């Protein structure tokens, strides 16, 4: 038996983004994609198991990433990411997330090894700081928890730009499998 574990082995995640107009009509379904479970997620799980100070999902950070990513595509997300590239990401708080256990693809009240997290980022969010922007350019996101009172990234995704205007709704669904 080896004492070395390969990060990313058993814990995995997927996500799907859907953009809707003010009347709820589909603008674009970006489909299901993989996301990177980062090392702080493993540290968080170890903290839980040791009975130390850790809090699970506390929100979802949305960031602009870098406009340079629009040219050649965003860099792949890796397990060593500790925070979004955007220095001031928008936080969708825990109270605005729907978190459920999944049994196969069905929501269940019984704890399982699968979580579904749904964030609906509606009109006016993220806030437009100067009121002059036509759209917010989103290129990255990550679930955030806490370890010893400090924010800790759980997963991280870089993606092609999603231009969300002030009237549209972004529905982001994440699956985590432990």
Descriptive terms for the model:
11 strands; 178 residues; eleven-stranded antiparallel beta sheet; mainly beta; globular; disordered N terminus
How would you sum up this structure, described in words?
- The protein is mainly beta and 178 residues long.
- Helix content is 8%, strand content 49%.
- It has 2 helices and 11 strands, in the order ββαβαββββββββ.
- The protein has helices at residues 39-49, 69-72, and strands at 12-20, 26-37, 54-63, 90-93, 97-103, 106-108, 114-121, 136-147, 150-153, 155-164, 169-177.
- Strands 1, 2, 3, 4, 5, 6, 7, 8, 9, 10 and 11 form an 11-stranded antiparallel sheet that branches.
- The radius of gyration is 17 Å and the shape is globular.
- The relative contact order is 0.29.
- Counting copies of identical and different chains, the oligomeric state is single chain
Shape: globular
**Low-confidence spans: pLDDT under 50, at least 5 residues?**
1-8
Content-based structural category = mainly beta
Q: Note the gap between the termini.
A: 21 Å
SSE layout and pairing:
Blueprint: E1 12-20, E2 26-37, H1 39-49, E3 54-63, H2 69-72, E4 90-93, E5 97-103, E6 106-108, E7 114-121, E8 136-147, E9 150-153, E10 155-164, E11 169-177
Antiparallel strand pairs: 1-2, 1-11, 2-10, 3-4, 3-8, 5-6, 5-7, 7-11, 8-9, 8-10
Summed up:
This protein has 178 residues and is mostly beta strands. It is built from 2 helices and 11 strands. The model is unreliable at 1-8 (pLDDT under 50).
């Amino acid at each position: 038996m080896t004492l070395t574990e390969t990060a990313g082995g058993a814990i995995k995640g997927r996500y799907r983004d859907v953009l809707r107009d003010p009347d709820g009509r589909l603008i674009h379904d970006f489909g299901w994609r993989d996301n990177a479970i980062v090392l702080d997620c493993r540290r968080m799980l170890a903290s839980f198991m040791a009975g130390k100070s850790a809090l699970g999902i506390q929100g979802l950070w949305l960031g602009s990433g870098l406009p340079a990513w629009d040219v050649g595509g965003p860099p792949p997300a890796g397990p060593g990411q500790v925070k979004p590239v955007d220095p001031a990401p928008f936080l969708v708080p825990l109270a605005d997330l729907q978190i459920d256990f999944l049994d196969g693809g069905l929501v269940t009240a019984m704890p399982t090894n699968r979580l579904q997290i749904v964030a609906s980022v509606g009109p006016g969010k993220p806030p437009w700081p100067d009121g002059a922007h036509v759209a917010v350019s989103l290129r990255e996101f990550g679930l955030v928890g806490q370890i010893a009172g400090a924010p800790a990234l759980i997963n991280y995704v870089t993606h092609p730009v999603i231009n969300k205007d002030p009237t549209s709704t972004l529905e982001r669904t994440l699956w985590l499998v432990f």
